[in-house]
Amino acid sequence: MKSGFRQSMSWVHTWGGLSVGWILFFVFLTGTLGYFDTEIDRWMKPELPKDTSTMAQSLAVAEARLQQKADGAERWFISPPTNRDNPHLRIFWQMPGKDGERGVRGNELLNSTTGDALSGRATGGGQTLYQMHYALHYLPTTVAYWIVGVCSMFMLLAIVTGVVIHKKIFRDFFTFRPQKGQRSWLDMHNLLSVTALPFHFMITYSGLIFFAFTYMPLIVASSYGTGDDAERKFFDELFAEGDKVQRANSPENLASLSAMFAIAEARWGENQVRYLDIDNPGDANARVSIGRQLDSPLRASPELVFDGVSGELLNDNAAATSAPRTVRDTFLGLHEGLFANTALRWLYFLSGLLGTAMIATGMILWTVKRRPAQLKKANGPDFGHRLVESLNLGTIVGLPIAIAAYFWANRLLPVDFAARSEWEVHVMFLVWLATLLYPLSRNIMRGWVDLLWMAAAAYGLLPIINAVTTDRHLANSLTQGDWLFAGVDLTFLATGMLFAVAAVKLQQRLQRTSQVTRINSSNKQSIDNKQIVAQDIPLQSPEAS
């Protein structure tokens, strides 16, 4: 009974994983890159200077710009350049609406020293890669959510069945037998699966929670009814900001933001302020809310609320929410990792890469296991097997090449090119399409070598392209201590080296296999010749002897 159950679970694990493996690889890889979306954003906008201003300068510049651009607004919002998530000063405003409608909104990125607006080249940046892992691309948003959701359910099923079918899963964790063909791939798949198993489960399950209201619309419909108005009412109540103070329509000067900021830093520590939210600026009923940086998976952050005219501290609001929302927000916070410091962010990134590699080894294992039987067929491997091998190669190596092309396009497309950010993405998907088609016209193993070398060149040459097209190249970054730009370039070099090592190893293996095949073929021919000669020599009769 147990054997039959495990066998059935093995079938579910194999075919459930393979059927959506290519989409899951895309989701995991782009989602993993999202943990460094801010760093990628900055690398893809090399014109933006590194912020070196003081907090007093930043707040003075932000307030002056908001008074110039949005005098009479009902809300101002300031994100000071205090950490990696806010590398530059950003302001936001919302004007009063008419007849209950939301007012016009605007936002700007500012030079904290001069007060000038920062623009830089148009680019999708790291945000576009991050958004692809849940919204895909070229598809309606809801359709993409459902595709990713179905694939995530299959992923969750594959994780659970994978644990069930491995009786000795933890012993297998310490087992790796190199150069054993199918067994080596199975060992590697097990090793990658168990190493970050809690992360794999958390990231998949929490991803489903993100769009629970999309996948289970009856949750909303049962209490609020159906339709857009009902859904809007539900989300308005879910994310309600609490009671807001109405405008007094009596002009008053805004108190010193720097003084309020100093109170917040005295309570929380340096670089712990995440935002300043000003309601009714320039009015007698102005309120200033200062939020703290996220330091835990719980997405709600503590706030200090000040009287915007006197600067008096009115409330110290803790990050308190209902129990159900706390559970939900904790899962979402764990998924996003916005609270993570540098070390934990790298751990998130490496765990994501392990998950990506786990999916890749599972797809490769499927083809390796069936290849010997396929090669014995008179007409060679059938179409289905060749298709899976081509999709594996075009996705496992082709997608990283396409992402490298995305970065190449950022540096090579003219800065004033129309629809520039859209064409960065178009280049990425066109290159991916080419790598998916390439294996169909090439011996599959030779195709692996070719694309691995192409990936090595695509990433290895990126720092050179960066040096030729900008002044934020590796040498300058190292001498100026700009570790963000230096880190991205060094990561590109390391990635290129990994692909080059893989290409060399595979090429050497193919050469050894080719030599063994030639030797075996030569030996077989020699044996056949001896048998032919032996058949031509008549046996001696007893009389002759």
Explain this structure to me?
The chain is an alpha+beta fold. Among the domains are: 55-121 and 215-331, no CATH class; 397-528, no CATH class. 62% of the residues lie in helices and 7% in strands. It contains 21 helices and 7 strands. It has helices at residues 2-33, 37-43, 55-69, 125-135, 141-165, 169-172, 182-195, 197-210, 212-215, 218-224, 228-238, 257-268, 323-336, 342-375, 383-396, 398-412, 420-437, 444-460, 462-469, 474-480, 483-536; strands spanning 75-79, 89-94, 105-110, 273-279, 287-292, 303-307, 313-317. The protein has a 7-stranded antiparallel beta sheet with strand order 3-2-1-4-5-6-7, with helices on one face. α1 (2-33) runs antiparallel to α4, α2 packs across α4 (125-135) and α15 (383-396) packs parallel to α18. The longest helix has 54 residues, at 483-536. It is globular. The model is unreliable at 537-545 (pLDDT under 50).
Summarize the structure.
This protein is 62% helix and 7% strand.
Query: Total strand count, please?
Result: 7
> In which order are the strands of the major sheet placed?
3-2-1-4-5-6-7
Whole-number radius of gyration? 30 Å
Shape: globular
Strand content: 5-15%
Mean pLDDT: 87
Largest sheet: 7 strands, antiparallel
The SS-based structural class is: alpha+beta
Q: What low-confidence regions span 5 or more consecutive residues with pLDDT below 50?
A: 537-545
